[in-house]
């Protein structure tokens, strides 16, 4: 039988063991708690780092790519010539001629689907326009008008411009300084396009005309998109500037014309136009018909990696 001294010793031993076990449990809980805190902190840091990396990737993508809008083209509608009888027979005849052009457009128009997906914000494209008057090389720069350049390249690759006529030639005069050859309408009427339009990308770095008119100078050697006075109305028509021209800064600049192409344009301009009468069917039509035989897309450089 244990003595009182032995029982007290055993009790003290059990107490020490209980205290040591409690201490171990508390230590383990502290270690576990610290581990949880570390995991949580690491998770927070990881989320922050991931978010910053995602933001950087998004910013890099936005700097290299753009989502272009190509809304459906508004169709042309006929007019009622009778509404213009009080303005004289010439205006009535013009209205009738307009309706005839609408019929012609329906018979000869070419419609294609617009480009899809995001488009590069940078990079150049070499273009060769083969005409019956000679070759006109272009260098298009996406940085200036990425959506318009992509559309032009897209149409060229689908042979949209092949076997079409340049329908308009303007001869710059004092007070009306516009010297361009306009092309890109397969119907030859100047009223048609590919079935879609392009959002404007107006230039921001053109010289301002010195006459106080508020116009900008489109320098000789510029290639730009043609449009109506309505915003976002460009389609397939483009113009080639062979002498400095004054225009509102609303026409998207796509790039430049090579020197050999300017020589071809100078020769076309020297041929003159068929008529300078706005009421004539031949108004501003090149006297020597300019036929685009083929538009070829050459090297494309400086594009961002996909």
Automatic annotation (TrEMBL):
Composition bias, kind Basic and acidic residues: at what positions? 107-123
Give the matching Pfam families: Pro_isomerase (PF00160)
In terms of domain of life, where is this protein from? Bacteria
**Under the GO molecular function aspect, what terms does this record hold?**
peptidyl-prolyl cis-trans isomerase activity
Sorted alphabetically, which InterPro entries does this protein's record hold? Cyclophilin-like_dom_sf, Cyclophilin-type_PPIase_dom, Cyclophilin_A-like
Give the stretches traversing the membrane.
Answer: 29-50
UniProt keyword annotations, A-Z: Isomerase, Membrane, Transmembrane, Transmembrane helix
Which Gene3D superfamilies does the record cross-reference, listed alphabetically? Cyclophilin-like
Stretches the record annotates as Disordered: 103-123
Query: What range(s) does the PPIase cyclophilin-type domain occupy?
Result: 131-297
Key word Acetylation present: no
Q: Does the keyword Isomerase apply?
A: yes
What this chain does, per the entry, is described as: PPIases accelerate the folding of proteins. It catalyzes the cis-trans isomerization of proline imidic peptide bonds in oligopeptides.
Name of the protein in question: Peptidylprolyl isomerase
